[in-house]
Amino acid sequence: MTEPTILTGQQIDDEGLADWRPMFKALQTRYRTGDFATGLRLVTQIGAAAEERDHHPDLDLRYGHLNVRLSSHDVGGVTARDIGLARTISELAAAEGATAEPGQVSALELALDTADHAAIKPFWRAVRGLRDNPAHDDELRDDDGDLPTLWFQQTEPHEVPRQRFHLDIRMPPEVADERIAAALAAGGTLVSDLEAPSYTVLADPDGNSVCVCTWQGRD
Known about the structure:
It is a single chain. By secondary structure, the protein is an alpha+beta fold. The protein has 2 domains: 9-104, Gyrase A, domain 2, CATH 3.30.1360; 107-213, 2,3-Dihydroxybiphenyl 1,2-Dioxygenase, domain 1 (Roll), CATH 3.10.180. The chain has 5 helices and 13 strands. It has helices at 9-14, 36-53, 80-95, 117-128, 173-185, and strands at 21-23, 26-32, 58-62, 65-70, 99-100, 107-114, 131-133, 136-141, 149-154, 165-170, 189-192, 199-203, 209-213. The strands form 2 sheets. It has an 8-stranded mixed beta sheet with strand order 7-8-9-6-10-13-12-11, covered by helices on one side. Strands 1, 2, 3, 4 and 5 form a 5-stranded antiparallel beta sheet that branches. A hairpin with a 2-residue loop joins β3 (58-62) and β4 (65-70). α2 runs antiparallel to α3 (80-95). The radius of gyration is 19 Å and the shape is globular. 26% of the residues are buried.
């Protein structure tokens, strides 16, 4: 059997899924349900559709909203299976009167600077209970999706610095500029926007950095 093709961010965007946004290797959305009972009905309907397709999303039901994440875990990305189920979920949500809020979704990764990731990777694999990503030697992941991915950014050897971690926050492109502007107004500084809109590097007043990332400008 041929493995399903992983779609790029642009291919996903071309599908015109108004409710959904690509976040790293998944599709995500949030539905504003208004109350718990509506969300529970929607979860039940999504579950039935998922069973029928034998393709299952991650569902996070809260009072007033439902977070949904779709990914083809067997290949590690978004495929046509996710596109099809996303369309079905959108139809089910609309029938329940739930409103999509894709601008509210985000995904967090942790990046650790190191000159030798092979030396420190076993420690972080053990202490966080993560697994190797078979596609990326410099990355550790939680196969259940409960914990943020940890990846290792190559640096030159140096003395122990004040800070070695930085955050990568993936968000929908339409909210990235607003989020960046708010962070700058709150006392942050722009470190680099040379790779925008793929990522923009900001720093807080102490110099701690964060990359505001979108799917745009990536494969």
